[in-house]
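Margin note from the TA: students keep mixing up input and output lines. Inputs are the sequences; the output is the structure of the whole complex. Example:
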Amino acid sequence: MMLHAERVAVELDGSRVVEDVGFELDDGEWLGLIGPNGAGKTTLLRAVAGLVPYAGSIRIQGDEVASLGRREAARKVAVVPQIPVIPPDTTVLEYVVLGRTPHLRYSGSPGPRDVVAARSALARLDGAHLVDRRLGSLSGGERQRAVLARAVAQDATLLLLDEPTSALDVGAQQQVLELVAALRADGSITVLSAMHDLTHAGQYADRLLLLDGGREQASGAPHEVLTEQLIARHFGASIRVIRDEESGIAVVPLRPRVESGQPVP
Amino acid sequence: MATARALRARLSARPERALRGVSAGWALAAGAFVVVSTLLGLALGPVDLGLGAVTREVLSHVPFLGVSSPFSGTEDAILWELRAPRVALGLLVGAMLASAGAAYQGVFRNPLADPYLLGAAAGAGLGATIVIAYDPGGGLDLRPIAAFAGAVLGVGIAYLLGRSVGGSATTTLILAGVTVAAFLTAVQTYVQQQSAETVQEVYSWILGQLETSGWSDVLILLPYVAVSTAVLLWHRRLLDVLAVGDDEAASLGVPVARVRLAVVAAATLGTAAAVAFSGLIAFVGIIVPHAVRLMAGTSYRVVLPLSLAFGGGFLVLMDLVARTVVAPAQLPIGVVTAFLGAPFFAVVLRSTRGVGP
């Protein structure tokens, strides 16, 4: 068991943002968190990473996250934030080497082994050619590759992704998600990700957890969670779910029915 | 500057080398800069001792070289009792202000942060003004002690205020610093206006000077600068991690609040000690680290050590100008750092533009 979360609640500035959420993640699994804006997805991820205090229990490989030191937690959990801070003058290699931080002493410097780890992380993400580039000169997709490589270099078994494709075009979105799927292929990395694209959520995650108002509304296999009723209720969206033999599931938004020439608000 | 561009290109072509910190070339350049500015600072002044003679005199103190001193007793006294302490003070103050500036910029992720950011200058100014206004010509020079206490007090209040407000740590702390600085400056101005006859003296203290009462000042300042720059250098890699923001740094396992407290405390204590003897020398804490960044790279493992060396040498050269251009009178060194530093920095800025992203 990679992750066991039970009755998790998070309070931010006096208001409950996450309430009574529980789930489990097996080694090598990919769980997608979906839900409308403000549903509590990011906050739940931050709680799992030990970045916000929480009530209840979150155990990673048996250890309670809140009782882990910062460095220990960072060795188990790597985070790819929704909007990473990008120091533009830093080279990709320097940036990816930052992922080695939890493996260095307080004032230690990265050694040759850390550089090797960073290079191989980049290679796993098809980014070996980017090493010398400065972050400021990268395209969105290349940049996301560098951020993922930093997380991989961290050598953590649990990878948290917060809407990793939100700023990318559709091609780059697919590439990034395929790279994550490939990272997971040998079973050494477990993924928990917040996803805003429901089609991608359905196609890439093994299971989905639907959050709304900080509470769990549904969970299960993609076809159980991505239903027209649930999406209408929690997103206020008209959609159609198309099941395709080859690629699985697709969620297609529909324009609400037009009556007397006026769009329905 | 073609050389700067070429150097940067070389740096980025060898990322592994950049990861190791200061390159051999830059270490050599920094060392040479310090040695040359020190020798110039010792040799030149109202009495020209001669560069060659000063070098021989310095070498004559190195055993087994067999170099004999060319100096008479007077020249010897000018060199070792007047100039050498002043040059040493310049090295210490410049190194301290430049490295503290670099550290502040890193820890607050703000390119305009300087060593005085959190109210250190206003506090030191108030402390010194009170002494000058109420105890003019007192037997014991209380100015350094009062300036030091004022600087530590200013930053201390700003830090406590920022913490009690909470919120986004860096912005709140900067706002608290601005608030405290405004208040302390108001008090300082009031005290200054109360005793009109000392306005001139207060003003020249605020613009900075490197006049010493000899080696004792240097020896008092030395441990502060040594400890605080050691702490800053100790944190240089962690400052690189902080460049990705508090949240991501925390997710990489860095105890962000502790690192920030340690760096701010060290930079502040060192700055307070430096301004106690030098007054408020402006601009060094901003232009030296930025010039280093533009020429040698942005990693704090490069910026901090090089700022230390170039800051020290730079201030010695500026002091040389301050005491020679209108000799026998002296210009406040803060005026010189801004007057010569600003155009120099403009040149660096223009010539390296377009190299980065």
